[in-house]
Amino acid sequence: MESSGTGRKLLSLVLLIGGAALLVGSLALDFMGNRASYRGPMLVIGVACFLAGLYLFPTLTRHKDIINFLFLIPLLFTFAVTVIIPLCLGIFYSMTDWTGIQYTKFVGLGNYITMFKEVSFLWSLIITVLFVLFNMILVNLVGFALALLCTSRLKGVGFFRAAYFLPNLIGGIVLGYVWQFVFNNVLIQLSSNGVSLLSNTPTAFAAIIVVYIWQYAGYIMLIYVNGLVTVPGDVLEAAAIDGANAFTTLIRIKIPMIASTITICTFLTLTSAFKQFDVNMALTNGTGSVQDFMGQYLTNGTQMLALNIYNTAISKNSYALGQAKAVLFFIILACVSLIQVRVSNKKEVEM
To answer: Can you tell me whether residue 297 is helix, strand or coil?
Structure first.
């Protein structure tokens, strides 16, 4: 038994040291510019040997935790490559004169100062906040109303669920162009003055809200349906026996019991509305006149924050400034989401 344990420990040490050596060697060859064909096999064998050595090491007190961590490595690696590393690089590039390919100097907070001096950006920030407030309320109200309808005893409920969810399956770009045709060619014939709703900023902004609700309410409806069907039937029967009407049952029983569902739907609508891009671009492309905002005439009356960042980086070729706006966008979205979840969780406890 003792010799077996010693042999296993020795084998694990050999695998750990050999795997680490192969891993470091392959990385060193890569950094030195050596394009030898054996670099890839060295890296794979090194990682495999190192993980096998960790698995076989017999004296670790938290052996199970290490095994769990090994299974998490692919997910953690993917998360680091797609989220953590790009975020750190983005913050760094936002403080340089980055051109999308390279940078020549470090400018510190210069891009952030320029960003807040840009009146069109401040306008985009304001209308994005307004868009989020309107949609967070309206999408949840419409989605919840549709969910109540689709959990009722009406015939053909399955058809209604599919019909209400169908707009969410249509891509935002296609959806925007379809509704652009409706506003510019169909509804214009029904209007008294023959003017499209997309021709001026206030009505165009309202049109974007309508299209977003039409697209997203069905998705939120399905989440509310899932929450409503989990309300225990015996609780509803007891409420009916006690004389509670439908409105009282809804306010006093159903809504408190689906508080967690409300939190999820509010979070989803908030983050989705903040990131609105495709419908905004396809429907109006951010155009619209603003006569006097902070003493300036603007032509981006319906341009929300995500589209403003895109146009700054791609259309104007100002990648560093666009990256600075994107970093601020991330900070705002993260803070608002955390506050919203915290407040909603507190409401859940109170309910």
So the answer is: strand
Measure the CA–CA gap between 301 and 346, rounded to whole angstroms.
37
The residues, any chain, with a CB within 8 Å of residue 151's CB and separated by 6 or more, are: 157, 225, 228, 229
Print pLDDT tens along the chain (351 aa). 555 567 777 788 888 888 888 888 877 776 666 666 777 788 788 888 887 787 777 655 556 666 777 778 788 888 888 888 888 889 999 999 888 888 888 898 999 999 999 999 999 999 999 999 999 999 999 999 999 988 888 788 888 888 889 888 888 888 889 898 888 887 776 666 777 788 888 989 999 999 999 999 999 999 999 999 888 888 888 888 888 888 888 888 888 888 889 988 998 999 899 989 989 999 998 888 888 888 888 888 999 999 999 999 988 889 999 999 999 999 998 898 888 878 777 765 555
Q: Hey, what domains does the chain have and what are their CATH numbers?
A: 2-112 (no CATH), 113-350 (1.10.3720.10)
Distances (CA, A) of 275 to 56, 79, 104, 285, 286: 47, 20, 31, 15, 14
Residue with tokens 């340089």: 96
Strands (E), the chain: 290-293, 296-298
